[in-house]
Design brief:
With 236 residues, this protein is α/β, with parallel strands linked by helices. It contains 4 helices and 11 strands; from the N terminus they run αβαβββαβαββββββ. 19% of the residues lie in helices and 25% in strands. The chain is globular and about 55 Å long.
């Protein structure tokens, strides 16, 4: 799983080279894929949109050169209706027997980016019958939505409610500085961190999922170049 690329090509290539060695069943992106040409809605022009869309397509093409199955949700810096294959916002697809459902965009704060929502808009969405919730915004009041000051939480209560009602995994990004994993109810939530600035790094999260009498999940966050790894395990 790869977070907030923001068309940072050197870091993306380093991550994809590492991923290629693992030969995964799929690659998941948690949003904010493309260049800053899109930026604030008030600055949009047809030329800037074209450059942004070309950068998103390039991110996905580079990932598919490593692994055929690539799924994503748009982030708040992305267009909500991205039409490139693999967009699971509001729907479910399966990779390796794991059902992946998406909730794109971010809220409740509104700053003039392309894909922002209010909490009630997310609450009004139908539930997704899935094993892994692929989100851009993190659940509120966790270590995954804390800003760099160490005190301020900016996540979504509606996403936290989804996590509380979910047995499985929730993957998110958006808050670049808050990579890590926490458990909310029966849901293991992981912020995969960011490639793009600010607080970007060459990092990736691997998820191993096995089923039997009990479901077992192993999560590994790798900070490449430093040989730093964090691991979490979850069984239910």
């Amino acid at each position: 799983m790869i977070g907030d690329v923001h068309a940072h090509w050197e870091r993306l290539e380093a991550v994809l080279a590492h991923v290629a060695q693992r030969r995964p069943d799929g690659i998941l992106f948690v949003g904010d894929l493309g260049s800053h040409d899109l930026s604030y809605v008030r600055r949009r022009t047809s030329a800037r949109d074209a450059r942004y869309l070309a950068s998103v397509e390039q991110v996905l093409q580079r990932a598919r050169a490593v692994c055929e199955r690539v799924l994503y949700v748009p982030g708040n810096h992305d267009l909500p209706g991205l039409e490139f294959p693999g967009n699971v916002d509001g729907r479910v697809e399966e990779i390796g027997g794991v059902r992946i459902g998406g909730i794109g965009g971010a809220g409740p704060g509104r700053y003039g980016f392309a894909y922002e929502w209010d909490e009630d808009e997310i609450r009004a969405r139908p539930a997704l019958a899935c094993d892994l919730l692929l989100c851009h915004a993190p659940p509120a009041r966790t270590d995954l939505d804390r800003l760099h000051d160490g005190r301020t939480h900016v996540g979504s209560e509606a996403i936290r409610e989804r996590a509380t009602a979910h047995a499985g995994v929730l993957a998110c990004g958006h808050i670049h500085e808050s990579a890590g994993a926490v458990r909310v109810g029966n849901c293991m939530c992981v912020n995969v961190g960011a490639l793009g600035e600010p607080f970007g790094a060459i990092q990736v999260v691997y998820l191993r999922w096995s089923t039997g009498l009990r479901t077992k999940i192993a999560i590994e966050h790798a900070l490449l170049g430093s040989d730093t790894r964090s691991e979490w395990a979850y069984t239910w």
